[in-house]
């Protein structure tokens, strides 16, 4: 917490190496992601209805906004704002519904990639350096086993019983939702409000991550980082502001990611709403963060 630009949960480990490692097939991850994709692509057209599609849009938007963007990323990982513990837990529960992983795994995955990309070199798995088809296979169906990985300390989060429960049951968490959806609208609602929602969240997360590390506009360069980030303008709205990834690399501790005119950031809008309700405080923005000597502007705004 002393350095808002730091990788919060990774312990600087002597000898840790972000380059040497082996990519292996992850059976559980592959079956989960592949199953959601197959159910959506095969059963989605057969169960389509306007109501089911509206449900898909609403549940996917709520999951990405409350869960992935605000709960998982800006609060749990970067601690870019403060809020009551009960609210944090609600937001993190929504994060688990995105279907990416539990809270512990999302922190480790994010912080490992963040740490590696700040080094002079890292494994292509961690930098999204492969062609799109290979990167999709690696990220959605495989895991990286580094020969000399760093250690993690999740602190208060790792000791939280509710988060331990979510970590152990994040896949199973979809079943009560599926039952409620079936009761409300049958299999059409289950496929579109469940499988299609998870498919869009997981595969969309990979696609934007791949693009954000390979192409697109840049406003900032972090001089001592081996991997630079790009913005993905077309995805700014649907990712709740997360697609302004170049800004995020520049100011990782900021709750605000969309910084310039035309850069929509619904995640930050929601955090500001929480502040007005007295449910958020200590909101970090680029203007409140200490300067980074290695940060250089590419062009003026």
Topology diagram in text:
Elements: E1 10-11, E2 21-25, H1 27-43, H2 50-77, H3 85-96, H4 103-118, H5 124-127, H6 132-141, E3 142-146, E4 151-152, H7 155-159, H8 161-169, H9 174-212, E5 220-222, H10 245-250, H11 266-276, E6 295-297
Antiparallel strand pairs: 1-4, 2-3, 5-6
Description of the molecule:
This protein has helices at residues 27-43, 50-77, 85-96, 103-118, 124-127, 132-141, 155-159, 161-169, 174-212, 245-250, 266-276, and strands at 10-11, 21-25, 142-146, 151-152, 220-222, 295-297. Helices cover 52% and strands 7% of the residues. The longest helix is centred in the middle third of the chain and has 39 residues, at 174-212. The protein has 301 residues and is mainly α. Helix 2 packs across helix 3. The radius of gyration is 19 Å and the shape is globular. It contains eleven helices and six strands. The protein has one domain (23-297). The strands form three sheets. It has a two-stranded antiparallel sheet with strand order 1-4.
Short description:
This protein is mainly alpha-helical and 301 residues long.
Extended strand count? 6
Regions with little confidence, pLDDT below 50 for 5+ residues? none
Give, in order, the helices and strands: EEHHHHHHEEHHHEHHE
What structural category arises from helix and sheet content? mainly alpha
Number of domains: 1
Strand order of the largest sheet: 1-4
Summarize the amount of helix as a percent range: 40-55%
In DSSP terms (H or I, runs of 4 or more residues), the helix count works out at 11
Mean pLDDT across every amino acid position: 96
Largest sheet: number of strands, sense, barrel closure:
2 strands, antiparallel
Strand content: 5-15%
